[in-house]
Amino acid sequence: MSLEKDCIFCKIIRGEIPCNKILEDKEFLAFLDIKPINKGHTLIIPKVHCKNLLDFPKAEETDFIEFTKKVATAIVKATGADGFNLGMNNGKAAGQVVHHAHLHIIPRFDHDGLVSWPHKEYSEGEMQELQKKILGFL
Ligand code: AMP
Ligand code: ZN
Asked: Among residues 41, 102, 104, 119, which one is catalytic?
C-alpha cells in the first residue's frame, strides 16, 4: 500500500495541501477537521492509503488506539469537553465522503444540542435470526 495521486488525505500527507496538524508519527497523522461538528473535531489518518477499517493495515491497529488516546486526551483538555465521540464512516452508504480511512474525534459538551441517531425495533425472532446469520460469517 502507498499513497494515491488524487486522494485528498494522501495530498495532505505529502504536504501538497496544508492542514492544522495536531500530532504525527511514522504511521499516523492527526489534524483538525476543516468543517468541525464541534470545534476541536480532529481526524486521524494512517499514512498509507487504505479505504476504510476493513483494509486498514493490520500491523498498525494496536498503535492506532494508543495514538488516538493521546490525541483525544489533548483535545478534551484543550476544549474543556465533557466527553467525546469516536466515529468512522465506512463506505458511501455510511456517509464516507473521503475514501482514505479516517477516525473522527468529536469533542462533546453537556447540552451541546447534537442529537443521536434514532433507534429501530426488531420484530419477534428477528434479532436472534440476525445474530445467527452474523455468527455464520465469523
Ligand atoms: P467522512 O464523511 O467521514 O468521509 O469525513 C470527511 C471529513 O473530512 C469531513 O468531516 C470534512 O470536513 C473533512 N475534510 C475534508 N477535507 C479536509 C481538509 N482539507 N482538511 C481537513 N478536513 C477535511
Ligand atoms: Zn489516500
From this structure: 102
110 grid coordinates: 453537556
Cα separations (Å) of 108 from 3, 18, 34, 54, 74? 32, 26, 17, 27, 14
Evaluate whether 32 touches 22 at the Cβ level (below 8 Å). Answer: yes
Provide CB contacts within 8 A for 57, sequence distance 6+: 1, 46, 48, 50
Q: Determine whether 102 is an active site residue.
A: yes
Mean pLDDT of 72-85: 98
Determine if the pTM surpasses 0.70.
Answer: yes
Is the pLDDT assigned to residue 1 strictly greater than 70?
no
CATH T-level assignment (fold) for domain 8-135: HIT family, subunit A (3.30.428)
